[in-house]
Amino acid sequence: MQKYTFAAMAVLLGWAAVPAVAADHPMPGLIQVAGQDHDHDHAAQNLQGTKGKGVVNSVDVAAHKVNVSHEPLPSLSWPAMKMDFAVAPSVDLKSVKAGTQVEFTVGKNKEGQPEIQAIQPVKK
After folding, report:
1. Strand duo 32-33 + 81-87: pairing
2. What span, in angstroms and rounded, lies between the C-alpha atoms of 35 and 64?
């Protein structure tokens, strides 16, 4: 019985370590989710005028936010990911629709957080 208890404990302890190891060794092709494994503090230093491309997943006109699946943003050290963005008050969201491929510019809001300062559909 002790042999089985020891084996079960070893398996449980091994599984407990997986998230810590995964955080230090990201898997190629893994799509990141907003708020995970990217450094907004480091990125905030480089935010002004960063250009990006992506696809709009959703638009919340009332809250002035969009959710975008964007390509990697190397200047910010951000991998490709799906994330929510605040949008600058000066940007008109009426023409931004879910499913649209867009180009956007990211900058900092008053709190120093990322926000989209310009967004437009990609011209085909």
Report:
1. parallel
2. 19
* pLDDT at residue 46, as a whole number: 58
**With DSSP H G I counted as helix, E B as strand and the rest as coil, what are the percentages for the chain, rounded to 5?**
25, 35, 40
Q: Which domain holds residue 97?
A: 31-121
72, two tokens: 């990697």
Predicted confidence band of residue 123 (pLDDT cuts 50, 70, 90)? confident
Average model confidence (pLDDT) across the chain: 75
* CATH code assigned at 91: 2.40.50.320
The Cα 16–Cα 12 span in angstroms is: 6
* Residue 65, Cβ density class (10 Å: 0-12 exposed, 13-18 middle, ≥19 buried): middle
Q: For 76-105, how does the pLDDT look when each residue is reduced to its tens digit (9 = 90+)?
A: 899 999 999 999 999 999 889 999 999 999
8 A C-beta contact, residue 119 and residue 102: yes
| Number of domains forming the structure of the chain | 1
d(CA 100, CA 121): 6
Q: Which residues on adjacent β-strands are paired with residue 120?
A: 103
